[in-house]
Amino acid sequence: MKKFVSVLLASSLLLLSLAGCKNSSSESKTITVGASATPHAEILKAVKPILAKEGYTLNIKIYDDYVLPNTATEDGELDANYFQHKPYLDSFNEKNNTHLVSVAAIHYEPYGIYAGTSSSLTNVPDGAKIAVPNDPSNEARALQLLAAQKLITIKDGAGLSATKKDISANPHHYDVVEMDAAVIPKSLDSVALAVINGNYAIGAGLKVSQALATEDKNSEAAKTYANIIAVKQGNENKPAIKALVKALQSQEVKDYITKTYDGAVVAVF
Amino acid sequence: MNEYLSSAFSTAMLGEYGNGLLVTLYFVILCTLVSYLIGIPAGVILCVSDKDGIHPNAPLNKTLGLVVNILRSIPFVILLVLVLPLTKALIGTKVGDNAFLVPLIISAAPFVARMVESSLKEVSHGVIEAAQSMGSTNWQIITKVMIPEAKPSLLVGAAISITTILGYTPLATLVGGGGLGAIAVQYGLYRFQNDIMYVSSILMVILVQIMQEVGMKLARSSDKRAR
């Protein structure tokens, strides 16, 4: 009995220490990154071989929403994520008490106003519907683009949290419809104009060159809304993370982006 | 606490809740009416053409059953996107409150059909046989025996259907529709304004409670069994 107990104790200690070894990602050569499908996961796929040469295995986990990849990074399930821009990250940290930090800005996706039933910005009938995404930072950015094109005016200071309620002037009485960003490209025949973000425009087969207007490359929007690699505070200097950033901010990736996305995605490094 | 409540109950929000309540009621009432308009005949056919029904018809039963099953298996969000062209054809736009009604009804009608079928199948066979022995036609059996006998069960089914339909209304936000659910999602889920999310959700719960109570009362008063 005594021998049995001591063998049991020894083997469980061994198992526990092995389990402990497995969970320690600081020694791990596997990097797990959560990302949106387009273009983030695609860009990550492009660096897989670069990282493999350094001995790292890159695992890409695709997410459709904008909450889970952050909570998973905070929980340690993911080493990093790549789907959001800094304003969203800051707002998320504040509202959810998470401790995520940006380690690198990779690309930005110009927002565009795409033609629905109106083929130009000047022949939109009064009272026509303009579709904008209904989630916070996307809606704000969409409204700001409409304001930049002088279709509506936004209250001063509404900035990145602008909603429909912050429209201070709408002389043509456009009906601004807040709806799901993914459904907007499918509803172009039901609205005069649609403001669509990069991911979904590419996904729907639209070309940025087709857009009636896009965010200026030198605009505040472009700088602020660069998509970043985010990690949990404290992990910024891990060798795996540094390798990931180096691989992403390379000429290879820049060329990949230019070649693949035809202006819908623009590298910012 | 006061600050928390004051933003959720600001004059601006009160107006939005009021609007939201009206739109939610519009969704629920219209969808329930139309899905019962479709679902009652469908449920009757499913029950009657069943092999144990009063007018067995295997091909009809199997086909209708298949259609109902397929429509019920498709996740609502996918269904919404799939029927966008139909929505456009029926009401001229894919966006707005009415655009949301189309997939809502297409999703609810098969659910209602199954509830009706189930309620009708509960009617005692003895009563149906008695009616048959008195020389009633099938139409008379359906309208004068089965449906009246199944009334309490149909009303319980309606209460269930209404709350299920209500449960889908937050998805109106996908196509720019309104309602209390959309408010909960847009402000609560997307903008982390939990106070607004709780208030609109509580309003929906109250709505459900009222509808359940009314439904159950009607069912009890027409139920000959429980006295």
Describe this structure in words.
Chain A is an alpha/beta fold and 269 residues long. Chain A has two domains: 29-109 and 225-267, Periplasmic binding protein-like II (D-Maltodextrin-Binding Protein, domain 2), CATH 3.40.190; 120-216, Periplasmic binding protein-like II (D-Maltodextrin-Binding Protein, domain 2, 3-Layer(aba) Sandwich), CATH 3.40.190. Helix content of chain A is 38%, strand content 22%. Chain A contains nine helices and 13 strands. Chain A has helices at residues 2-23, 37-53, 68-75, 86-96, 136-148, 198-203, 220-224, 239-248, 251-261, and strands spanning 30-35, 57-62, 80-85, 100-108, 112-115, 129-133, 153-154, 167-169, 175-179, 193-196, 213-214, 227-232, 266-267. In chain A, the strands form three sheets. A six-stranded mixed β-sheet of chain A has the order 2-1-3-12-4-13, with helices on both faces. Chain A has a five-stranded mixed β-sheet with strand order 9-6-10-5-11. A two-stranded antiparallel ribbon of chain A has the order 7-8. In chain A, helix 2 crosses helix 8 and helix 2 runs antiparallel to helix 9. The radius of gyration of chain A is 23 Å and the shape is elongated. Chain B has 227 residues and is mainly alpha-helical. Chain B has a single domain (21-179), classed as MetI-like fold, CATH 1.10.3720. Chain B contains ten helices and no strands. Chains A and B meet through strand 9 of A and loops of B.
